[in-house]
Every structure is written in C-alpha cells, then in structure tokens.
Amino acid sequence: MNIKSYRCHAAVALVLLQLAGEPRAQPGTAAAAVVSPQVLAQKSAMVDKVLNESPVAARVLSSGNEQARWHFGHARELAAHAAALRTDGLLRAADGLLNEAIWEISRAQQLVPDPGTQQAGERSRYAQLEDSVAALKRTAQIALPPAAATQGESRDMMLARADLLADQAGQLARADRYIEANKQLDAALMLLLRDASARLAGHTIVYDVRFADRHEEFAFELERHRSFERLVPLALLEFRPAPEARALAERNVTQARELRERAEAQFARNPLAAIKDISDGTDALRRALQAAGLVVPQTMESR
After folding, report:
1. Rounded distance, CA 105 to CA 76, Å?
2. 201 contact partners, CB below 8 Å, separation of at least 6
3. Three-state SS at 207
C-alpha cells in the first residue's frame, strides 16, 4: 500500500473513530436524532475522496471485476443521495447512507485488494497449504494397512505428480510468486485427497489382521483413529463445506476426541471396552469426513 492510499484510509478511519467516540443516546430520546454537522462533513469529504481521488477507486474501476465495480457504483449513488439529504438538513439519514456507502466501498476493496495485501494473504495461505500437503503425504503412508491400498503403479504415479507439484510450488514461492505457487499446491492437495478418497471409498474395507494381544490390537485401532483424525482438517480446507456441514464435522470430531480419551484412560482395566470406544471414535471421524465432503466407506469391520 503506498503513502497516498494509507493516508486516505487513515483519514476515513479517523472519522469513524471520532463518530464511535461520540456519546449515543437511548433510542426514543430527542438526542438520538442528533448527528454532528462537523463530523458528518468530515465523513462526507473522506467518502468523496475515496470514491473519486484514491488508489482504491482507480484499482476497482480499472479492474475487470464487475461485482466490485457494482459495489463501488452503488457507493457513489448512496453518497450522492446522502449529499442531497445533508443539503436538506436531514443529517441523521445522510449519516446512515454514508455508512452504507463505506460498507459498499469495503466490499469492493475486498474483491479487488491492493497487490501488497494480496501478496501477504497468498503468502499466509501458502504456509497453510504447505503444511496440509506435508501432513496428507504422511497420512498417505499410514491411513490404511498396506493390504487395503492396492492401487499399484497408478497410485504411485499420482503421488509422484503430487510431489512434483509441491516441488514446483516451492520454487515459485522462493521467487515470491505465491499466487502461482498456491495453484500448484492446490493441485497437489487435490491429488492427495483423491488418493485418500480412493483408498477409503468405493468398496467395503475389511481388516484381515491377527493380533498377538489386546495391546497390539488397541495400538492398531489407535493409529487408524489418528490417521482419520489427521484427514479431517485437510478435508475441511480443500472441500470448504457449508457452515452447517462444518459444524456437523466439528461436533463429530469433538465426540471422537472424547471417545479416544476415554479409551486411553480405561484400557488398563477394560481393554475390550477401550477398543470399542476407539473404534466408535473412528466411526465419528468417518462421519466428520463425510460432512466435510470426503467420500469414505459406509461399513468398516474387523475380523
């Protein structure tokens, strides 16, 4: 953000802070209708400056983002209407319209961020994606027993492509090309999630495993539980479910954590109950993954 843009935003922020600092009367009183003419004049001048003489205006109006331009145009209409109301002495109504205009400007600015802000956001997203890809690559090795993952060479090729994309992303990031780097990481993450989905979906997975004792069986079920647990935040990140679905996933994750903690606490005195709890917890994680959008098997059994 350059100095001119910073000063413009700072001035608008100052006006808003001044407004926020004014005492507010209770609704229904005569004082509730009072708006300071001086503060309103300052706000009007700042909004006019942002709409007509700022880097924000130049960036939005020269962009190809029609939605951002619509918000900006609506802000201009609101400001013009506010000016007319102010001329007629309707200060409170004018103030309300100016607040709406500021909100519309903010919406437009979010849709067309300045390069510095966008670069910072992309850099932060790169770090998150990099962690997610690394975690899912680890999960790819332990999410299911080797016998269940029979994709063969095609799966190896998919994982190799994900590695290549991640390497390319690293090279782009080192050149500060984070937007392009994130596209590569997005593609790598999708491949890894597709691999996880392919290994978890489309058939009933039967664990044909023999255990030497209950300790070995519990350790196996605990590792399986944790592998599903690691998948949930990655699935939420990639599939971006609706708020209701995200809430459902988070409730199932909470239930799974409670079951795992109970299982770990009671294993010494009741191994069979602990194994059932950890298995039920894994089923809760499976439901969380389904809510997030990752396809998982409908039935899972041990024999």
Report:
1. 9
2. 295, 296, 297
3. strand
**For the whole model, what pTM was predicted?**
0.41
Chain-centre distance of CA 86, in angstroms? 41
Q: What is the pLDDT of residues 19-77, one digit of tens each?
A: 433 333 333 433 444 678 888 888 888 888 888 888 888 888 888 888 888 998 999 99
Supply φ then ψ for residue 28, to 5 degrees: 95, -10
Report domain extents, the chain.
3-25+32-111, 115-200, 204-303
Q: Using CA atoms, how far apart are residues 43 and 51, in angstroms rounded to an integer?
A: 12
Is residue 207 within 8 A of residue 150, CB to CB? The reply is no
The encoded tokens of residue 57 equal 């205006």
Query: Is-contact 200 299, C-beta < 8 A?
Result: no
Q: Which two tokens stand for residue 229?
A: 């647990």
pLDDT for res 127: 83
Spatial distance between the Cα atoms of 13 and 278, rounded to a whole number of angstroms: 53
Helices (H), 22-152: 37-53, 55-62, 66-87, 91-111, 115-142
